[in-house]
Write a structure and sequence with these properties.
Radius of gyration: 27 Å
Largest sheet: none
CATH architecture of the largest domain: Orthogonal Bundle
Oligomer: single chain
Number of strands: 0
Strand content: under 5%
């Protein structure tokens, strides 16, 4: 074979081997991707401050799953009937003016001094807007709030909701006799009673979950919290043909509250009152 042909042949073989080495990793990557489930995502690190995986007892995890399944099976409103989240149109400066009448019961900047009236400072705007609409419609039937909410427009509700979320809750003190037992329920639940840990939905410091509409509980009046847990347990929190489904998270709370003893309600309410 002539010298030039031998050189050309050697070069061709070298190029072919180089192409194999270059394309092989890409081929393996493509093959791995084709073997992955559709829509699979790479693992992500847990959010800062989230409880470590497996820290919740198995019984509590089962109870949480059961409550979530009950919530998912409840009928939901069509998207056309669901109002926009309050941040779309709500204006905090306008809400400050409109909330002046609310201060009579809920206190300056939403920090109620009366233990029977809830604190609204720092509360989720999504949750406030939902509850005001339920008061307005009469589904949440409260003799004080129903007539006050009746005259509110959707814009009024959005303005007031975003205003109160922007306020800072003033700290309260937990009852020293009960808060430790309440902390155990809040952080770990009650496996025997199938009560999931409150932290799973309301967060490690009680700030709630905005996306899911779970309310903030930190610095909330314990007397008010106990009253609402009792209302969930006896089914009177909401009215109508399907009270449990009135709120986006109603089914879950109707289920869990029935499993709490009066002492557990008192304990966990004392704990959240002292949260900062």
């Amino acid at each position: 074979m002539p010298q030039r042909l031998r050189i050309a042949s050697s070069v061709t073989v070298a190029i072919a081997m180089l192409l194999v080495l270059v394309l092989m990793p890409a081929s393996r990557t493509a093959q791995a991707a084709s073997n992955s489930p559709a829509g699979a995502q790479p693992p992500t690190a847990p959010p800062t401050g989230a409880p470590p995986a497996g820290s919740q007892p198995a019984g509590s995890q089962d109870a949480a799953a059961e409550a979530a399944a009950a919530q998912a099976s409840s009928p939901s409103k069509p998207a056309s009937e669901t109002p926009d989240v309050p941040f779309v149109h709500g204006k905090a400066d306008a809400g400050a003016t409109k909330a002046a009448v609310c201060a009579a019961c809920h206190g300056p900047n939403g920090n109620s001094a009366n233990p029977e009236w809830p604190r609204l400072a720092g509360q989720s705007a999504v949750y406030i807007a939902e509850q005001l609409r339920l008061f307005r419609s009469g589904v949440r039937n409260n003799p004080v709030m129903k007539p006050l909410a009746a005259g509110l427009s959707d814009q009024d509700i959005d303005d007031v909701a975003v205003y109160y979320e922007a306020q800072t809750p003033a700290g309260l003190e937990a009852d020293p006799s009960y808060w430790q037992a309440g902390e155990a329920i809040y952080l770990r639940g009650d496996t025997a009673a199938q009560v999931p840990a409150c932290v799973a939905c309301h967060g490690p410091v009680g700030r709630g979950n905005l996306a899911a509409g779970y309310p903030a509980l930190r610095a909330q009046q314990s007397v008010y919290v106990v009253a609402q847990l009792k209302n969930y347990a006896n089914g009177s929190r909401y009215s109508g043909a399907n009270p449990a489904a009135a709120s986006r998270n109603g089914v879950m709370m109707f289920t869990i509250a029935k499993r709490l003893t009066p002492e557990q309600m008192r304990d966990v309410a004392s704990y959240v009152q002292g949260m900062r």
